Structures are given as structure tokens and as C-alpha cells.
Amino acid sequence: MNDRAKAGSPVEHYVNPAPFDPHRVERMTPEMERYYMAPQWRLVWWKFRRHRLAVASGLVLLVMYVSILVTEVLAPYNLHSRNMGFIYAPPQSLHLFHEGRFVGPFVYGFDSRLNMETLKREYLPNPQRIQRVRFFCQGDEYRFWGFFTGRFHLICAAEGGTLFLLGTDRLGRDMLSRILYGARISLTVGLFGISISFLLGIMIGGLAGYYGGWVDNLIQRFIEVVRSFPEIPLWLALSAILPVTWSPLLVYFGITIILGLLDWPGLARAVRSKLLALREEDFTTAAQLMGASPGRIIARHLLPSFASHLIASATLSIPSMILGETALSFLGLGLRPPITSWGVLLNEAQNINVVAIYPWLMLPVLPVILVVLAFNFLGDGLRDAADPYK
Amino acid sequence: MFAYTARRILIMVPTLLAISLIIFVIIQMPPGDYLETYITELQSQGEAVDPEKIEALRRQYGLDRPLYEQYFVWVLGLLQGDMGYSFEHQLPVNEVVGDRLWLSFLVAFSTILFTYAVSFPIGIYSAIRQYSFGDYAFSLLGFLGLATPNFLLALVLLYLANVYFGTSIGGLMDEAFIDQPWSWAKLLSVLEHLWVPVVVIGTSGTAGMIRRLRANLLDELQRQYVMTGRAKGLPPGRLLFKYPLRMALNPFIADIGSLLPQVVSGAAIVSIVLNLPTTGPMLIEALRSQDMYLAGSFLMFLALLTVVGVFLSDLLLAVLDPRIRLEGGATK
User: What is the reported pLDDT for B332?
Assistant: First the structure.
């Protein structure tokens, strides 16, 4: 038995002479330090990266948005170029081999004739007419963003041949090119609309959340009124207001404003409730005690802590705007030609009898669904990542 | 309960007044009025325009009075069930509208029922069998349903029916019954045709509802009282239905508030594509021709449908949840 076991006997006082380090047990490796000290935006990014579907959707959207910068070069034809010999031509399929021999990407040329019984134009691919697709070539003339003219395309039809990968419409215009050009309008409508609704939502929600009291009450009632309107009928009514004499560009801005005007209540509510909750947080009190002005508190402390939520919910409401524009243009109350969006293209598919004969007129449906899906997945991922501390 | 109901009604009245004011402003906004359109139409046809007759018409329709008087005449008329006069059809709006309002109501109501009937079992299944094959399949379907705009879905269905069955699925009744008085056979025919618009309009709402119910139920299933229940040997079915499901149902009813505007607005556009004899096609026609009372009354009816629907859902919620009844005001 040692000494300590003996009851009552004093234990010798012992002091370790080595310098004391309070972090000795939990010393952080550089990796750990990188993780624990990471700023919020990096945590958000790490969490977002784990959401594979959201990252993929983000990439798809990025590619689409970059593509609208150079639509003129990507599209094989000009938006307005008509091919009177090829009205309602079906899609041409791309081939690589002709009778077992490698030729490279080519299409078979069309033999067209008019069916005298049904008066329908019929197009038959002719295996004798091999039309090789050209790359990095000179084709239809265009005005790049309306500034300077060019003829350079990434891909175009063979000399004297045709390249209608998605068919043509009633004026013989290439559907693929028109869908590519339509993306420029359809994709930007959502962005402009969301900026308007963002601005309105933050201002109105901020007023309600900051002042509280009767201002808050009034704004809440007003939001309830706006929210009880069914969206599409009201959009229809508002777009019927736009004068017929307006230029297509003005109509475009008018439509984006209309889309933004009805969307803000959701955002305003989010801003308000977040402001009300964060006002009571300890760090707000700390900032107040240190003498920060209200403006500084809102801008430096409150806004950054829910900005990520706002961005996520904004991403989730872009699709409804894209769908809204598509619906309005589809009904003929939204954008008007020559401005071409996916909705305007679908307007031609309104008559079911035409669609039954020429089903490729419905193809603009696909990019609409793709974009809406991508925005939904991206928004979901962002929303999950918006609060990285959970 | 009585106090709560009274308060909700008191809130509803100013809401409806504000809505009617906004609608009136919107339908008054286009430059000119219907008579000016009418005059240019007559002139373009080379007909002489009698200024006295125009003046008489203007007086008859009350277009010469100041705007606020026109507004009061319209609102007071609405309160008495008189929806004004349709310039284009030269008939009172009530007669032009006919069955359309009721059919609109029928479509919206059936869609809500459909949404509940479908999303309830699927939502529960997805929550208790989380990450199973069925859960993934329904999630995928749900995402597609959310992303596909319903009027495009209508178009695709029309196309498929046309190509594969050679029939048209548009309309809301057999052609023989159009403009016929209501009969048992006509009602049956309407019910037969009803499922297409109901499915088309209901898809996105159903998808959203499934996701919400699944998320809510998953939250509840992780609570400790569920574990306690399981530990003391409650049968799984009883354990599910007795507590967590009832908690998860609360938002199910509260969501009518966001579901109804969505359904009504979806119905408006789908009915145009499917050519249903509801308010949609006539609303768009009225908007195009500036037939303001017709358009205004339709908008008012659609807004009324949602406001009253939300009111009813709030009452139902108060019946089910004493917290709301006692504290007042839905906690959304």
C-alpha cells in the first residue's frame, strides 16, 4: 500500500514546472483551423457542394446563361430567316455513317412534294443527297446584339443544303435557332422580374419589420390582399393594360415589371419575420450597446445573416416568373413577335389540329421544363446550404 | 369561437373592398373606354356615327359620370348580385355568364378534393417509407409535376389523346348537352369530362402538398413521444394515426390559403387551352375587347372564391386547433 491510502496523512504539494498551455488537449491542426475559422460564405459553399443535384443544375443553368451571350454564333440560322421551300419541314436526324462508310456528321437532303389529296407538304429524306454539316463556317448574316454584323457560325448547313435538326415552323424558320434565340428572352425575364420583386420585397418587408406597430399591420393587410388574388388572371388583366402602340422592347419591360409586381409579398414576409427575430438576438444588443447606428446594425449585422436565405428564396421564385411569361405569351397577351421567347414559340402550337400534324412545334416545352426543374433543384440546394450552422 | 368568427368576417370585409378597388382601377386603366373602341369600329366599317346616339349610350352605361361614382354603382350592384352590363354582348353580365361561374367553382372544388385525396396517402407513404423505391419514384414524379406548367400539360394530353385515341378531351360535357337545360344526363356527362382538367390543374398543387406533408410528418416522427409510444408497445398503425399524423395535418388545412389562388389561376389558363365553358376563356376575351364590367366581375368572382375559401379554411383550422381559436389569428 502506498502513502496516499493512509487516511489523514498530508499529500505533498506538487507543481509542474513546465509552462501551461490551456489549448494543449484540443490543439487544432491547420485543417481543423481552416474548418473552424471558415467564414460563413465558405461554409455555405461547402454545404452546397455536397448537394450533387443542385451543383449539376447550377452548371446547366450557367451553360444556358452563357449561351445567350453568343446565341448568334451558336444558332445555325438567323432568327428571322425564312426558307420558303421548307415550310413545316420535320426534324432532320444527324448521321455519321452512310452505307457503312464513315462520312462525318451529315444529314440527308429533303425531297419535298405537295400531297394533292390532303394538301399537306411531305418531305422525304433522300439517301442520295448527303449534306455534310460544316463547322466554324460562314452562314446567315446576323447583327451581333444589334451592334455589328457577322456571318460566323459554330455550325451551319452544307452549301445549298439544309440543317433543320428540330424542324421548321409555318414560315420555314429553323426551330432550333428560334429556341436558342428564345432562351435570351425567356431566361432574362425571370432575372429582371426577380430584381424588381427583390427590391420591393426588401423595402416593404424592411419597413414592416423595422418599424413594427401600425406600419407593420397595414403592410400585413396589404400583403394579404395581394396574395388572395389568383396570379394568372391578374397578370392577364395587367398585361391587357399595356398599350398596343408600344414597341416590342417596351412591352418586354412592361411584362417583366408586371411579373415582379405580384411576386414580392412572399419575400417581404420573409424579410419582415427575419428582421423581427434577429432584432432580439444577442449580437444585435451587443452592437447597440457599442453604439452602432440603426443603419449600420441593419446593413452590417442583420442583412448578412439572412442574405443567403433571401437568395435561396429568390432562386425558388424565378421559375414561376418564367412560367408566367410563357403562359402570357402563349395566350397572346404577353410578348409579341418579333421578340421571340419560348412562350411566343408555343403560341404557334395553340391550335391542337396543327400540333397533331406537326408535333415538333411543341418542342419549346422541353427547355421550359428543364429550366424550371434546374431552378427548383438549385433553389432547394441553396436553401439547405443557406444555414450552414445547422 | 364566435368571437373568432366575427373577427375573421370583420377582416374579410375591408379585404374584399380593397380587392374591388384594385380591380376597378385595373379595368379602368386602359386608355379610352369601350365606346371609343366601338366608334372606331363603326368608322372603319364606313358607317355613320350619330353623336347623339353615342351620348345616349354613354349616359345609359354611366360612362359620363365621374370615376368614383362609377365605382360605387358597380360595387353596390355587385352586392345585390347585379354584375353590370356587358358592352360587347349587349346583355347584362349575369345573362352572359350563365353557368360559367358555377362550373368554375365546380372545377376548383373538385381539384382541391383531388389534391387531398391523392396527396394524403402518398405523403404518408413517402414519410413512413423514407428513401424507399416508392418514395424516390413519387419524389421524381412530384418534381416533374411541379416543373411542368399545367397549360403545357393540358396541351400534351390533348395531343396524345388526339394521336392515339383520335378523340378530343377538351370541353366539359358532350357536345349534345351544350346550351341544353340542366338534367341528370348532362350532370353525368360533366362528371365524365371533369377528370382531365382536374388532373391537369391539380398536378402541381398535389406535388407541393405531398412534399409538405412528407416533411411535416418526418419532423413529427422523430419526436420523443413517438419513441415513447413505440417503446411502450403501441401498434404501429395506431401510433401513426393517433399522434404524429394529427400534428402533421395542421398545415394541410392551413395550406388551402396558398393552394386556392394557385388552383383558381391554373384553372383560368387550363380552361382556355381545353376550351372549357368556365370563366377563363370569356375572361381573356373580355380583357381583349375592353369589356370592362364583364372582365371586372370575373376577376372579382375569382378573388372572392379565394378569399372565402381561405376564410373557411381558417375556420376549420380554428375548430381543429384550440391554440388558434384561443389566441386569435392564424399562426402562419
Answer: 38
- Burial class of residue B147 in the structure, from the number of CB atoms within 10 Å of its CB (0-12 exposed, 13-18 middle, 19+ buried): buried
CA distance A278 to A210: 11
- For residue range A333-386, what is the model confidence (pLDDT) as tens digits? 888 777 888 888 888 887 777 777 888 888 888 899 899 889 888 888 888 787
Partners of B162 on chain A (C-beta within 8 Å) are 352, 355-356
Q: What percentage of chain A has pLDDT greater than the value 90?
A: 4
Q: Which amino acid type is present at position A340?
A: T
**What is the 3 state secondary structure string of A231-292?**
HHHHHHHHHHHCCCCCCHHHHHHHHHHHHHHCCHHHHHHHHHHHHHHHHCCHHHHHHHHCCC
A–B interface: beta-carbon pairs under 8 A: 127
- Using the CB atoms, write b or e for B69-100: b if 16+ within 10 Å: ebbeebeebbeeeebbbbbbbeeebeebbeeb
Kindly report the pTM of this predicted structure.
0.81
Q: Identify the closest residue of chain A to B21 by CA–CA distance.
A: A225
Give the separation between CA B11 and CA B22, rounded to whole angstroms: 17
Burial group, residue B330, by CB count within 10 angstroms (0-12, 13-18, 19+) = middle
Contact B22, B328 (CB under 8 A): no
| CB-neighbour burial class of residue A262 (10 A; exposed 0-12, middle 13-18, buried 19+) | buried
What phi and psi, each to the nearest 5 degrees, are found at residue A309? -65, -40
Q: Chain A neighbours among B 235-254 (CB < 8 Å)?
A: none
- The fourth-level CATH superfamily of domain B104-320 is MetI-like (1.10.3720.10)
**Structure-model confidence comparison of residues B32 and B314, the more confident one:** B314
d(CA B331, CA B253): 12
DSSP-derived 3-state class of residue B45: coil
Return the SS3 of A141.
Answer: strand
Q: Is B307 on the interface with A (CB under 8 A)?
A: yes
Tell me: pLDDT of A232 over 50: yes
A contact test, residue of B11, B144, B151, B169 with most A CBs within 10 A: B151
B218 by Cβ neighbours in 10 Å (0-12 / 13-18 / 19+) ranks as: middle
Report the C-alpha gap between A148 and A328 in whole angstroms: 32
The position carrying cell 400531297 is A115
Contact across the interface for A349 and B298, Cβ inside 8 Å: no
* Phi and psi torsions of A124, nearest 5°: -120, 130
Per residue, what are the HEC states of A70-101? HHHHHCCCCCCCCCCCCCCCCCCCCEEEECCE
Cα gap B209→B116, rounded to integer Å: 8
Sheet with A95-98, strands from edge to edge, namely: A95-98, A101-115, A120-132
Chain centroid, CA B145 distance in Å: 18
H-helix or E-strand spanning residue B115: helix B100-128
Asked if A201 contacts A266 with a C-beta cutoff of 8 angstroms, the reply is yes
